[in-house]
Amino acid sequence: MSPTVLMIRHTFNRANSGFTLLELLVVLVIVGILVSLLTLSVGLLGEDGALRREAERLEALVQIAGEETMLHGFEMGLRFYRRAYEFSIYQDETDEWTPLVGDRLFRRRDIPEALELDLELEGRDVILELETDDDRDYRPQVFIMSSGDITPFNLRFREAFSSDGYQVLIKADGSAEIKHDEL
Description:
The chain is α+β, with helices and mostly antiparallel strands. Helix content is 36%, strand content 28%. Strands 1, 2, 3, 4 and 7 form a 5-stranded antiparallel β-sheet that branches.
């Protein structure tokens, strides 16, 4: 055999022998980095999506509550806690506000554990309670009247220990707007 045939045969055998350990490690590191970046980006988008969904849900519920009060002629209220909100109805016969417990649409809404609410009424920040155990003086913070008027408010949904989130701005005429804000 000539030396050229041996050289071709040697090169051909090496090409079929597979990847080196170093090449495999480099590929594994690159794949690991890509997977970790994908996981982080999905996690960040997931929280932002949860904030937006909660803001859109509240906006829709307030709009529906406004329509219900005008249609049926009763007054509704909305009370916020640090990690929840609930609708209530005014009882004329007892002169009291009663939370809507059994109602499927206007039931109490607990927001996810990682999120918090910030409420602003008439340009002032309201310190929200975690929960209330004293039902004797139950009173909503926002009133949804049968005339179509509503107490204007600004509610921010944000991650705990974060300053950016989504704002739900409700005006006195019931019109609403959702804004993404970063402080």
